[in-house]
Amino acid sequence: MTPPRSHADRGQTLPLYIWLTGILLFAAFAFFVFAQAASARNGAQSAADAAALAAAQDSRDELMTGLQKAILQDDDWLPWLQGEGSKGTGASAAADRLAADNDSTLQGGAIPTIVNGFPGYQVTIETRYTVGKSIIPGTETQHARAEAVAVIQPRCTLPSDADPKKLVHLDCDGRPVDIDPEHFRSDDLPDASVLFSVHLAE
Length: 202
Known about the structure:
The protein is of the alpha+beta class and 202 residues long. It has one domain. It is 42% helix and 25% strand. The protein is built from four helices and eight strands, in the order H-H-H-E-E-E-E-E-E-E-H-E. Helix 1 packs antiparallel against helix 3. The radius of gyration is 29 Å and the shape is elongated.
């Protein structure tokens, strides 16, 4: 038969329970802090991705406008199909709008870059919100930052004998597109997504 536990035994286990409870509470608070930080980082990355894509899409629109004008003005329009000619004049403004929509601020504008030979834009954003209060000092004033790069990739393959003065048959990722400068109208071009893809750099 097991003898009853004495008051001394219960007195010795009470500090152990308090100590273990303290460790568990600290672990729970630490996990909460890491979760807060991870959430802020994820939000920042989503904002950066959206801003970079907005900059690239705005530049793609500029490419389409330049391509259309070059054909109508009987200029050499072939380089526009390769992503050349756009100056990205509205890229930073577009990126800034998307960053603001995601409660973030664009840092330094949308910076033109080249990725695997294709034009693109790099952006850096900082969240307007902070990680939040926690047991770690300073998190209530700490903002998350993230970077992203979006690329404009031409989809169309030009024939080797392409002449900007004559009918050109394009293969745009398996979709045939014909451009005839002699009978071109402003609404003859397909959607921008047919001629150019916009995606985040890997």
